[in-house]
Write a sequence for this structure.
């Protein structure tokens, strides 16, 4: 698999996540409309994310094809670090946002009251860098289950 295709798909997907998080997530001072502003960009982002996850899976299977058990341990520790760091960052972001909004979707005095959990104000909770790296890390790690041997160049 050409690594350039992987890098391009990662870049497009990450750009889509960042675009939705920073430009299509409403601030508490903005009025919510009838439709989530991230709906249309999200529809366009889905195929790129799926392609990016598939290519990441393939790259992961090639990476783990001829590795030893120590590599699996290193990867597991690296994934644990991503999960802990990403979870902490996500918790801080959601806590700060809930404080800004005055509570969650069930708090009567909250700006989020009676809205769905995924709405125009909370797009950034679900589409951010932490989520991006987490899902791609999982896709890469699942490639370890496939373990496709890397084919050597037969003409050389």
């Amino acid at each position: 698999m050409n690594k350039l295709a992987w890098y391009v798909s990662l870049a497009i997907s990450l750009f889509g996540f960042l675009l939705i998080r920073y430009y299509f997530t409403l601030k508490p001072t903005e009025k919510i409309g009838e439709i989530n502003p991230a709906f249309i960009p999200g529809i366009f982002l889905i195929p790129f994310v799926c392609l990016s996850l598939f290519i990441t899976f393939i790259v992961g299977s090639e990476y783990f094809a001829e590795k030893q058990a120590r590599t699996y341990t290193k990867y597991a520790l690296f994934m644990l670090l991503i999960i802990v760091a990403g979870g902490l960052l996500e918790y801080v972001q959601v806590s700060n946002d809930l404080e800004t909004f005055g509570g969650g979707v069930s708090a009567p005095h909250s700006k989020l009251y009676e809205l769905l959990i995924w709405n125009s104000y909370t797009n950034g909770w679900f589409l951010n860098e932490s989520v991006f790296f987490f899902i791609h890390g999982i896709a890469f790690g699942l490639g370890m289950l496939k373990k496709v041997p890397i084919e050597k160049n037969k003409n050389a």
